[in-house]
Protein 1
Amino acid sequence: MNRELNQARRDVWQSEGFTRRTFLAGAGKVAVAALGTQLVTARAGYAQGSGTGTLVVIFLRGGMDGLSVLVPADDPALAQARPRIGIPGSALLPLDRGFGLHPALAPLHQLWQRGQFTAVPAVSTPDVSRSHFQAQDCLERGGSSAGAVEGWLDRVLDALGPGTGFRAVGMGSTLPRSLAGDQAPMTLRSIDDFTLHVGDDVLPQSTAALGALYNGIDHPMAIDTATTLASLDVVRGLAAAGYQPAATYPQGAPGDSLRELARLIKADLGLRVACVDIGGWDTHTNQGTLDGGDMRNQLTPLGDMLGAFATDLGDRLDDVTVVAMTEFGRRVAQNANGGTDHGHGSVMLLLGGGLAGGTIHGSWPGLAPDALDQGDVAGANDFRDVLGEVVSARLGIGLGALGPIFPDHQVTPLGVMR
Amino acid sequence: MPESVTVDRRKAIGALAGGAVAVTALVVIDRRDHHGKLWEGRDGDSRRADAGFANRDDSYAAAGGEIAAPAVQAETLLFATAGEAAAGTQVTVPTILRTDDPVLHLTRRATFGPTPDLVDEVHDLGIDGWLAQQLDPGAIPDPVADQGWAAFPLASADPAGVRAVVRRFDWAAMIEYGQAALARQVWSRRQLFEVMVDFWANHLNVPTPGPGAWDVASSWHNDVIRANALGSFSDMLVAAMQHPAMLRYLNANASTREAVNENLGRELLELHTVGVSAGYTEDDVRNSAYILTGRTVSDEGRMMGMGQESEFVYDPNKHWTGPVKVLDFSHENATADGGMEVGDAYLRYLAGHPSTAQSIARKLAVRMVSDLPPQPLVDRLAQAYLDSGTSVGAMLDVLFRSAEFWAAVGQKTRRPLENVVAAARIVGLQPGDDVRYGVAGLTNAALAAGHRPLGWPAPNGYPDVEAAWRSAGGLLTLWNHHRAVVGGWYEGLSYAEPLDMVSGMPTGTVGEFVDSMCQRLLFQGFHPGQQAALIGFLGGDAAASSERAGVHWKGFEVASLVLDSPYFMLR
């Protein structure tokens, strides 16, 4: 082995912190036989069809306490149930219908004033479950029917038909359950890390060999290999161009993910559906107050990163709708650890273009004792009515074509989209 | 028609398809044709037909498509010995892996990856002899792994030892433990033990690093997980529910009679024992939390002075008293002082519950056999667990004597950590002049691929099925890691030059060189198409001189490509 060459590569590898390697320009084009059906293509200038734009689905894992986010400020039952962790009405950012927004979400309130943010309270799944897994599974499969084993976004992609290798992106390391299925989603952590550490002298041969190694192999990895190889050149160009976001994202993986999505959207790579996970919402203890505690610590970066995403996208925000959802709301009454245990009705947050802004949508059953479901916010708005309407308006799938996406539910729009 | 395309695809996971167009035939499928009837008429398949999945991995596996349990052709499903089971089971499942040497299958499943020495060792001892050794890990000398482990002194420190050298809430000890665990995975000769340690650490997941574990993580992993990994689950559960790491992580330390916190009480039922399909109620969850009140940690404010910092204490004043009932467990729970005893009785009841046996047996079968394992095997493992008083060894004994295990060659896909570790093992990375730095590099590779040891952030542990790990970016991370291990880029470790791995090279032909590298790294040759891929990389002429084809410098790339191949991605 050429020790000198290897030493040079090793130096690059180590100097760049195990993650990055610079290349000379001019890699050969890789032919990937496996892409014969054109489910995915690497063409950057993907011709936009009738449906345009991007749906970004953020999953707030752990069960976000909706009553700390979209606060029914006028409801006396709330202050009674939450003497230690209630948000005083005077501090709330005013919305509509008696609701106020947690002040840590100020960037969202600015979007609200522009008609680019709204929310739906008392969102529920058909199965009442206080198990994280069951409730997440129900949401991510898009319902509870026996037929809906794929992720709901996999069925959305099925309805959309072929697109580019970037048409479905899950940010992170594991595939979001809502994208699980056959539609060849791409999972990645960052654009700059999406690179193969081989020298330019052997790059074309290496990618050709990798394609051939998986040709004819009956395994989902073969599809992912084809997607990866077909996308390398495009990503390389994107990485080489660098990225200066038009806003500052908070540090951490979720902010990084949104920044990378903004980058992909602005590069016009045909991104239609994207998923981001944000954890840390299982606040059994120390939810805290306006002055500190876990809720403020969770909401501040959430508001900042969503605000940065909107600012960074600029005019392109009109082509993007973001839905942030969580598996369940939390119990109305605080527990004695200054937290809340698992509840039921939750809140969905929506931002971006195409929204019917200026109002909070959906029914609100209130917090009177007889309105509660075993001590929890009752479910009043089916999550599929929100998602179905958003998908239809944002991605151009007719309401009549939503049947296969939500096989056990007839979508009735709440009017969240214009 | 579309449906049959799906069926063919998933039955033949990891097989060579009929032709080069097979991949293209897969991707456009009109699944509306078979909505609602995916699981009809599949006798013997362990997939539940109704909407509710028992857990996340089952749900993912179902979404990945229709995977039949591997067909089994054997004279019996349970043999007297593992060796007889290996010899008496025909491998009929389509796979690209060679099926004529059960030792390769065993070492892909029961270890973090075969090495030439390990394969020779199992052949020498025989399958039963090797397994008997593995089930008594304390008797196996383990000098290289001990050397790796010793480079991370905080990995064996007790909480007081950590507190003595680490700033409060600093992650240093938790990070060291994760690195030391990875060092053991790479170098330990007690491989089955290490596989089960990782299994249980995920089953009772306390994220490491994670909140609340800064001083107690090493103790958690050593005193709860490692101490019981091949022992009884009942003992492990009892130890877990009186360890500060678990009590803090799921908020039981803050749960009191006046202020019951449900977090641990619920996850104990759902994740650690019976599972959601056991049909417990919200009342059961509440009672489960009542029973655990009083179990706290010595530095919880009011508890100061009741022991050393970060020690488990049972505080009767915090225990909820009164009759409790969870599933079929009930107790008067009349006195505060008796609460600890009630709790331990409850934990042993849960550990011995048939639903717990099913959950754990299924999880073990998913780990060892296939993503949707055959139900008869799961039932057999569950029975062994119950008959033996929750013995892990008894389950493993039955597993390796079962035909289903030996029939499932190539039906699992390596997760990123398993890929990272297996690559380090097969190229023979050894401790070098800076073990800490080298192991940190390997850990970073696992981190970059999203699978740092013990790092899953939620209480349910890392997923264990292929459908959850599909990732285009993740493939690149692994391919880059393969170049790093082959090239010796992990500074601080020693490694073999790629050409030194294959004897007599580079004097032969390109074809011979490629075959030797495949044999050295995979214990088998490639199929013609895959072989042609490597020969193509070296110029396309199998009969050409390998020296003239440039293996002196391209050997590095060839070895990397062998590890990138689908053969290495399967286990």
Protein 2
Amino acid sequence: MAGVLASPNLPLHPPVRKSAPGRRAIPWVPIVLITIALLYLALFLFVPLAAVFYEALRKGATVYWAAISEPDAISAIKLTFIAALIAVPLNLVFGVAAAWAIAKFDFRGKSLLITLIDLPFSVSPVISGLIYVLIFGLQGWLGPWLSEHDVKIIFAVPGIVLATIFVTFPFVARELIPLMQAQGREEEEAAAVLGASGWQTLWYVTLPNVKWGLLYGVILCNARAMGEFGAVSVVSGHIRGETNTLPLHVEILYNEYQFAAAFACASLLALLAVITLVIKTVVEIRYEQREKEFRT
Amino acid sequence: MYFRRLIVYATAIAMLVAAGGTLFSGAAWAADFTLLNVSYDPTRELYQDFNKAFAKQYASKNKHKVSVRQSHGGSGKQARSVIDGLQADVVTLALAYDIDQIASRAKLLATDWQKKLPNNASPYTSTIVFLVRKGNPKALKDWDDLVKPGVSVITPNPKTSGGARWNYLAAWAYADKKFAGDQRKSKDFVKALFRNVPVLDSGARGSTTTFVERGQGDVLLAWENEAMLALKESGSDKLEIITPSLSILAEPPVAIVDKVVDKKGTRKVAQAYLEYLYSAEGQEIAAKHYYRPRDEKIAKKYEKQFPNVALINIDQAFGGWAKATQTHFVDGGTFDQIYQPGAK
Amino acid sequence: MTTGIFTRPHSVLPGFNMALGFTIFYLSLIVLIPLSAAFIKTFTLTWEAFWTTVTAPRVLASYWLTLRTSLLAALINAVFGLLVAWVLVRYKFPGKRVIDALVDLPFALPTAVAGIALTAVYATNGWLGKPLAEMGVKVAFTPLGILVALTFIGLPFVVRTVQPVLEDLEKEMEEAAQSLGASQWQTFQRVIFPTVLPAVVTGFTLAFARALGEYGSVIFIAGNMPMVSEITPLIIITKLEQYDYAGATAVAVVMLVASFLLLLAINTLQWWSRKQRAQESV
């Protein structure tokens, strides 16, 4: 390919930036493609999202408000926040540590480590919950000891937090590792040569470089932490007002014929998802702006 | 830089608050006693009312506040949670077999638990009925109609739902009577029935939702109380109840989980809680929620609500729950057999 | 300096031991030890018992169902994901920014919410289910419903892996091809498609891996009929509820091994894709 293009007999024009390249551009192709793409997105994305809000507001604003301000709903919201507030920072610290080790150093076994870190991403949520029951349940490894000392892990809040940490484990690391790998080590090495300690290098050189990737990873991690259903369902015990996160509470309401209330709580989660996407877009726009400033 | 430090401190504080919330969430309750009632699916509404009434009565008699937490799900699933460590003070499940499992596998209560309370530890009973669309367009009158081709039957999964097991056995009992005990013919009958089932939810409530809300199926096999509740919630202009000629006497039992109440010191409260189910007020609440009460006076009062139906007993017809489970619901039992392609 | 099997040449940067040590510690505590619990429990079964459990007809049917719906959903997402990425990168139209952001919705939306929303929409009395039912197509409670749910959750993967590649594509190559007489389709076929193919395959494999284990969004819309519409995670739960812990972990182990192999495949593909792009930028 490169050989043909390098032929000296070709007239050299300055590159022309057109939105649809090609001399014999068929004008209706973009329109058809856009339509098909939008149809596909509508079918699988827009309509379900709209359905959530429609069903939530169908019985009116009073029912909506009552659903989300009811005590069980409030404790579900609280529990969801607690789980996320613990899981996300822990996985953040882990993500930075892992990315530092993997991106800034060479060592044997690196790809194995990366694959292991990715494991929770591909494990079914049901299995994620199951393994914690196997360890902390009454019939499990630590069960009898925990029971004697009256420490409640499974079917209580700590179990839910653990399951949440597991399923959101790789999110920050996955964002940071390729980013830090792409950025290379020169800046850090320069800082080390200039006498900076490890922490100083990390804090003043590395983290500012990756801050948008970090933010993106944290946002995704948080969204998944607040929305996790399968794994938490297995370890929860479904004690109303105590061990139900918001997604579980949605399921309970759904099972009690309170569909408007179920969708009302679901809409809170959907709203959170939309806010997540908005933040992510803002982050991206800022990132692109900075890139442009950097180039000019 | 200043901003970054602010973010770090804010996150650290938030985490501490969250961790604190985890540790102290239990202690936030002002009640003197907290009971956990691990129950099965259809009793959600029943215990909402019952718990309020019990708390009031207990506070007036004993000057202690009692708070009862509820957990609901498929009966088998709930039993397994208790075995795995869910600290239930009392269990109120769909079938005796599930509580037997808690006794035998986790040794959390004595194996003769069923004798500790009257009426086989079942303060109320129910049975299995058909819930159909208003007007009964497919004219489904009895079990025979359910095996006809083109009829769509909704029932939960007998592997996970107690209610589904009662459904299964009720159908089998009818076939036993019709075919004079020929087990092969009974199995074929139930097989034909399940061939008409398009979706198996894991719990009774899931099936009800599928039938009522999602509009699936022509008939729902349901607990009587569940069907009546669905009628009330969705309107008797959309649904009606058909009582088959033969059904099974379903005795959902209740029990105290000895090991848990002794550790927590809640035995007296838990005992009072379960005994209140047998009291006049308790029986009235049960009847109001469409459970057949044991108390004869209350039963008479609500007589019109409960149609007469020939009821067979699991002990007489199937030799008790342990035997029934062995025959039908364990891996390789009749339920698995009817799902084997090409099996007899 | 060495740290067990992780040996490396000496480096100027500090903090390796601590970072790696903490990484391995946290990884073991949260991921490796709990996962090993599943394997250890399975080892309590004899080989025959294990084999019978994981090859029971109902379990096999669930593998087949999970496999083919995940594969099909990933394929649909591959084709349409490429299309969506193309449209988002190449064309301008009103609302593009919004739609671009919404593509990530399946990442951000809880699976349970997705489940009840999709069931509501595609049931026979739902917005899309009703017209489809009139055409004779039943979606909810059939394998088709599972397919819809899996397509939903896999939607962003191909789009997000293909977009950067398309953006990096050099216009000069296409224009050169066209100035040499290639039609638009030939340009796409010979120049563009080979370049994005690795990214499409990576996205496909990611979507496939995600779909294999999915539970929350599928469980509401699936029919859960044994042999027909019962997904493997549900079989695990069913076995749990029958107190067959070893059986549940046996099926779980099969799923874990499959996911692990897939992960290896993904990482290898990404490595291959990166190599290819590095070559192209020469």
